[in-house]
DNA sequence: ATTAAGTACCGGATGTTTCT
DNA sequence: AGAAACATCCGGTACTTAAT
């Protein structure tokens, strides 16, 4: 290790240290590595997508499979062998994509699920509303959080379709955009895994199960973190978002 | 004792198959 | 074709366990 470091650039040395930490069982380091190579996974997904032979799967599906391959790669890469991670991961990621596509007879279900994310949000929002013993402001804050997250969700969808323009004017007025800003800043104040869960789920539309894999936690735990995060954001929004709009 | 995380189960929504 | 029964997935929650 010491011998090697002298021939490495500072950035490389830092990366190598990160790998060492991850191998030592440091979950944070592992997560940072996964995060670091998200872009690489996306490129791999794009390559495969460009070579696709049919249109049964959307790019998002390729990306999801690529992410799975990336996680496997991070977990199994042996940094000591002197092979570049990208070289090692490329094989595994394209394998994961092929695997995923092959076993995606449940593809339709997944697509439907993704389509229904928004309605699920609305549904869970209704639950909150129905709770009788919560005070009115908390309920309103719930609605604010839910609506803004919903719009953020739609916005990312629009980015994907490349039709960014127009929609804001129709649906999201100035007030809504302000609200969205407030939600974003509330999002920034979340800490640790809570922020990660909200970011992955709402901004990147990654399902709980996959977030769980990425963070090395259980699905149930992700649900808990999700709920806690929404609660925190609701608290933050109390008295800020409400008086502007409600 | 407190907090983070895991397990097992529930209910809702959707998709699929079977029956009329 | 339409209804009904069944299956599956997903997020949520109550309870338990482990770590500090």
TrEMBL record:
InterPro entries xref list = RNA_pol_sigma-70_dom, RNA_pol_sigma70_r2, RNA_pol_sigma70_r4, RNA_pol_sigma_r2, RNA_pol_sigma_r3/r4-like
Output the GO biological process annotations, alphabetical, semicolon-separated.
Answer: DNA-templated transcription initiation
Recorded source organism is: Massilia forsythiae
Using the record's annotation, list all stretches that form the RNA polymerase sigma-70 region domain: 47-103, 186-235
GO molecular function per UniProt: DNA binding; sigma factor activity
Q: What UniProt keywords are attached to this protein's entry?
A: DNA-binding, Sigma factor, Transcription, Transcription regulation
What protein am I looking at? Sigma-70 family RNA polymerase sigma factor
Q: Which NCBIfam families does this UniProt record tie to the protein?
A: sigma70-ECF
């Amino acid at each position: 290790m010491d011998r090697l470091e002298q021939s490495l650039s500072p950035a490389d040395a830092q990366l190598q240290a990160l790998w060492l930490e991850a191998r030592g069982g440091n979950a944070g380091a592992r997560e940072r590595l996964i995060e670091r190579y998200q872009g690489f996974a996306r490129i791999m997904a794009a390559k495969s997508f460009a070579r696709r032979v049919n249109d049964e799967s959307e790019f998002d599906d390729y990306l999801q499979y690529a992410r799975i391959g990336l996680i496997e790669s991070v977990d199994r890469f042996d940094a000591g062998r002197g092979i570049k991670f990208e070289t090692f991961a490329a094989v595994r990621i394209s394998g994961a994509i092929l695997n995923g596509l092959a076993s995606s007879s449940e593809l339709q279900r997944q697509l439907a699920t993704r389509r229904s994310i928004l309605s699920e949000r609305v549904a869970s929002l209704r639950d909150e509303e129905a709770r009788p013993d919560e005070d009115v402001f908390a309920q309103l804050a719930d609605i604010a959080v839910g609506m803004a997250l919903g719009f953020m969700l739609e916005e990312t969808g629009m980015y994907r379709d490349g039709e960014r323009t127009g929609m804001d004017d129709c649906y999201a007025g100035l007030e809504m955009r302000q609200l969205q800003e407030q939600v974003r800043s509330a999002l920034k104040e979340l800490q640790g895994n809570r922020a990660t869960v909200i970011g992955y789920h709402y901004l990147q539309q990654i399902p709980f199960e996959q977030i769980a894999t990425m963070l090395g936690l259980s699905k149930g735990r992700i649900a808990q973190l999700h709920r806690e995060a929404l609660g925190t954001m609701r608290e933050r929004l109390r008295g800020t978002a409400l008086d502007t709009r409600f």
